[in-house]
Amino acid sequence: MERKKTANIYTMSKQINIEDSIFILMMRIRVIRDTITLDAEAELFLPKILDDIEFIDQTSRILLDQLSEGDQGGKDLLFEHLGEMEWQYSQTLSVLMSKGGSLSIRDIPTIKEKLQVFQQSCLERQRRIESISPQKGDPQSSPVVSSNELNELLKVL
Fold first, then answer.
1. Residue 141 carries which DSSP code?
2. In angstroms, rounded to a whole number, what is the distance separating the alpha carbons of residues 20 and 43?
3. Nearest to 97 by CA among 60, 53, 59, 39
4. DSSP codes joined into one string, 110-126
5. pTM, to two decimals
6. In whole angstroms, how far apart are CA 59 and each of 7, 81, 100, 122, 155?
7. Element containing residue 76 per DSSP (H, E)
């Protein structure tokens, strides 16, 4: 009996860590999106943005792998949040690849190719999440916080 209780506490802790990790990644994506809309010095900020993009890509892959392990009980909302985070990440990559201005990477083929690889990886994770998570029509799968509400909350920060 004691062993089962410990396992449940570990599972709950793991879910909280995944939820917090998704939130942190959303914050990092927001910082990237805000940075690329400003007229920032490319020499100063582009290397950091690229490091953050690589970090987000690696971390989201790890989170999806962790979340995919074991039974699906109580994970539906986490899959939904992870899916939203992947969508935000994909949109940010698209803007970065198409944006003009000081942080434009259109004229740097090696960086653009690397971002395209990250975007493809993101698309594969999105497909994987869609195949695992419940259908959108399922009333139990509706988000507690919509993507618009989450964006408004992130604006405050």
1. G
2. 31
3. 53
4. HHHHHHHHHHHHHHHHH
5. 0.71
6. 24, 14, 28, 11, 23
7. helix 76-98
